[in-house]
Each structure stands twice: as structure tokens, then as C-alpha cells.
Amino acid sequence: MIPVTSLADQRVALFGLGGSGLATARALVAGGAVVTAFDDDPEKVEAAERQGVPTGDLTTADFAPFACLVLAPGVPLTHPAPHWSVEKARAAGIEVIGDIELFARERRKVAPAAPFIAITGTNGKSTTTALIAHMLRQAGRDVQLGGNIGTAILSLDPITADRTYVVECSSYQIDLAPTIDPSVAVLLNLSPDHLDRHGDMDGYAAVKERLIAGAELAVIGVDDAWSSAIADRRAAAGLPLKRISTHGSVKDGIWAIGQRVVEPIGLAQTVIIDLSSHAVLRGVHNAQNVAAAVAATRGVSLGLDEVRAGIMSFPGLAHRMEPVGRIGKVTIVNDSKATNADAAAKALASYPGNIFWILGGKPKAGGIEPLAGFFPRIAKAYLIGEAAEAFAATLGSVVPFETCGTLEAAVPAAIADAVAQGRDATVLLSPACASFDQFRNFEIRGDAFRDLALAVEGVVPFKENS
User: Mur ligase C-terminal domain: from which residue to which, for each copy (predicted)?
Assistant: First the structure.
């Protein structure tokens, strides 16, 4: 835990008692703050009380004595309308902040030289964050990994000058962190997302840019117009900047040419890594992630050999193009995180062909029509869940398919067909759908897929056969 001593002996209102909210409440109490925590869900309040978190009814509380309102990132700050707790805080003239802001303030107070790498973007945040942390750990650094990737930031080990913090930041978290000042800030890309919480694309991009504003070094992907404009403003201000791109060389940056990631070193264009043989970091989107990770880790003085070793030993993240098993010439890949067509496109683009594709679930708007360009790569499709009928109509006579209904039926069928054709093939779960019709979340769906695949006779875990 990171005790928040910057608010010692001050009264603090806290709203939102999910996982990060509970961690924040404990960190505030440990640092000496006088906390009143609350949630709209009475069951969460009761659970917090059982864990020793001080609670109180903020709906009737006078906010004037509070130093601030600490808000959980899932609670609306501005759109579609400010939460009632935000309205009360503003009426009382107190600031509204989140756990990332508390971390930033504590770092400045306790160990301002502690390396702090913050990563954001619409797509690729988790992979890039995990890759950066892995590269630094492989090089012998003391690394703490948290934030939006799953571990609440204030649950991490206490801040020291020689401990590196690698933190994934969502737009919600950045919106609640007005003075965030990382050693290195990474902005991967921007495309429309969470507009219900930020009003429009201008508002969304402006929030993301705040992460860049206070950084010592900014690493910015310039393959979309929004991020490119942010990089241009950073450069115009004369502040340290590394651009990254998958569209060709960039000034003062790192770029990818196909699967090769290139860094200018002296007068030479040095190939840092060729990802074509990497087990999990396939595809253009991962080339961007790797370029960002190279720029970020080089920014905290990682050597070239350490960078290469860290990338090549990266095992990937569960449920994100995760190789789970092999049988003969067939690789079995879990991409359960692909809950929409855009995400599935990244996986389909990463394998050259002969894909035995398992897809379906609770459908999203637009279905799989945008994936038609990848249909020639599909040897056969296996349809599950609510979307099966609609997806069958889209595949039509173009792609052979089998309506399996459930994952339990689809997995052995796909593996058997892939093995029977006797050549290199990929069995790919990339559903292009939410999981909610049959599974509580994509993680449970991915775990079920892994278990079903490894239960097929002859399949061995990927690491044992790689």
C-alpha cells in the first residue's frame, strides 16, 4: 500500500466503493486522513464497513469542511451529467480528484525522482503497459505495475526513489488527475470512445492530452490526426518528444516498417526488433505498441540489449492473442478480449491464412460486415451464442461455417478440423462480440476456451511446445 500522507489530518470525502475506491480509502486512512466514504449501493457501503473503512452518508453531509472529494473513476464527472457528489463538492468549492492524482502528489512529496511511466490511448494500453513493465523487470528494475490494468495504484508498494511505477491510465482517471506529471507519458492513439463521458471527440482528446502536458518526456503515436496534432503542439512548445509511427519514418522518433521496429541511433537506422517470429506480438497494432515501449524504456535509460531481451521474452496478456496450446501443426489462440469487430480485425490481420475461427456471443452494432476483407483467410468459421444466426447470414456462401451454439461444441470441432487438414493452421477464438449471453465477462469466456482446448487429446500447453 502507498499511504497518502499529503492529506494527513484533513477531512476527505470519498465516493465509490468498488475495488479502487476501497484501496484508496485504506491508503488515505493509513496516511492519516479523516475519511468519510460512501456509495449509492448500500451493499458496497456495508461491505466497506465490514472491512474497517469509515463510512458516512454523503447525501446529507456538509461538504464545506472537506479538503476534497476523491471520486472513483467510474463515476461521472462531467457527462452525461455530473454525479450528485460532484455537484455538492463544486457547490462547496472543493476540488474533485482521483487515486492517480493522490499518487502523483505523494510521489512529489516522498520521492519525486522515482521513475513514473504512464500509458494511455484508445487501443493497446494494456499490452503496452504490461510490455514496458516486463522489459524493465527483465533488466533488473524494481517495478510496480498498476492503474487501469487491474491493480489499484494505491495498492502498490510504497514509493521509493529506486522503484519504477508503470501505470495504465484511462481517460476517466486522467480527468481526475489535474497535476499528473510522469517521467514518461505514452499516448498510443486516439479514436472515438467513451464520448458519453467526455461529450465529444474534442473533449475526449483534451483529457488524453493532459497526461502529456506534465510529462518530462512524451511518447506519442502520430498515425491518427488527433494524436498527431497533440504531438505538434508538444513540439511547438519545445518540450521533449518521441514520435512513434507504423506508417514510416518520423522525426525524432521510432517507427515500424512492417514487423520491424526501427530506431535512429547516430546516423544509422537500427532495427531494434523483428516481430515476425514473436509468439504474441504480431500485427501492425502490436508494432505500434512495441515502438512505444521501446521509446518509453529507452527514456528511462534501458540499454539496447536489455530492450531486445525484454521484448522477445514477453509472454503476452491473457485473452489478447494469447497462444494457449499446440497440436501438430496447429496453434490455438485465445483472443477472447476481442469483443467487437475492430478488435477481431487485429487478430485476423495477424495470421496469414488457414484460420479456424470461433466467433459469436452477444452481438455489437455493425456485426462482422467490416471484417469481410479478412474472409479469404478463414478456412472455416464456428458460430456460437446469440449472434450465430446473423453471422451465418453475413458469411453466407463465402466462408464455410458450422453453427455450434456453445464454446463446448465449437472448440473440439475447430481443433479436429484444423488437425485433419494437415498443414499449418490457427484455431482462433476472436468472438467480435460481448460475452454476456453465455459468460459473465470475456475473461471467464477466455478461461473456458483455454480449458476446453487443453482438454482435447493431443493438445499441449503452448509454452511446453514453443
Answer: 319-433
